[in-house]
């Protein structure tokens, strides 16, 4: 159950949550202006009601290494008074940097370096296929402070993308969709004409946007 709370009220409420009962959902993505954004949602139960709130939504500076992501988590947890013992699970994608950030976070209260590099690209970029079969990074040998849970929707999306890449008919269909979409995307005039005459906004398929291929197919059949 999602509801709206002011930040001070949310912080006060989180302080009363028992050990290992705060669960987080985290993701990093790039805006259209190529700014890296870190989003974290928190979920817990209070008075037998499931509560879900936005924990943070902020610009993330520096390389997207596991260490830098961990430090960003640490800063947010510390600023809102969340201690390590309260954290149960963290749901995220299967990327190696996210896995390393969670699995090496044995103590979020360690002193953190303050150096930051203003680069928005991902240093530990992996292919969809590698993400699908990725395993936890045990390189550090540290005992995880809490459990990482792979996002089921993201894993399913990776499986769908992998299957589409190995299907010749699907590839031809995707090429046709992309060519059609690009006709409109290259021209503001034709985009406006399409919107006025069909009453629909075009939906370009994207391998990183959930269900975008289905939405693109719906758009084509409806226009």
Automatic annotation (TrEMBL):
SUPFAM superfamilies: Ribonuclease H-like (SSF53098). GO terms for cellular component: nucleus. It is found in: Nucleus. This is Uncharacterized protein. GO terms for molecular function: zinc ion binding. Keywords: Metal-binding, Nucleus, Zinc, Zinc-finger. Its main location: nucleus.
């Amino acid at each position: 159950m999602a509801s709206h709370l002011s930040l001070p009220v949310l912080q006060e409420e989180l302080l009363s949550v028992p050990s290992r009962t705060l669960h987080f959902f985290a993701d990093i993505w790039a805006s259209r202006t190529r700014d890296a954004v870190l989003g974290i949602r928190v979920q817990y139960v209070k008075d037998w009601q499931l509560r879900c709130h936005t924990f943070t939504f902020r610009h993330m500076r520096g390389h997207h290494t596991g260490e830098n992501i961990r430090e960003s988590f640490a800063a947010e947890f510390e600023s809102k008074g969340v201690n390590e013992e309260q954290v149960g699970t963290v749901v995220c994608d299967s990327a190696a940097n996210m896995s390393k950030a969670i699995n090496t976070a044995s103590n979020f209260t360690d002193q953190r370096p303050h150096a930051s590099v203003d680069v928005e690209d991902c240093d530990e970029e992996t292919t969809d296929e590698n993400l699908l079969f990725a395993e936890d990074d045990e390189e550090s040998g540290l005992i995880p402070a809490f459990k990482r849970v792979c996002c089921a929707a993201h894993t399913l999306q990776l499986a769908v993308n992998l299957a589409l890449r190995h299907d010749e008919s699907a590839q031809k269909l995707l090429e046709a969709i992309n060519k059609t979409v690009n006709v409109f995307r290259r021209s503001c005039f034709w985009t406006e004409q399409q919107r006025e005459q069909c009453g629909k906004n075009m939906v370009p398929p994207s391998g990183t946007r959930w269900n975008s291929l289905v939405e693109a197919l719906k758009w084509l059949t409806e226009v």
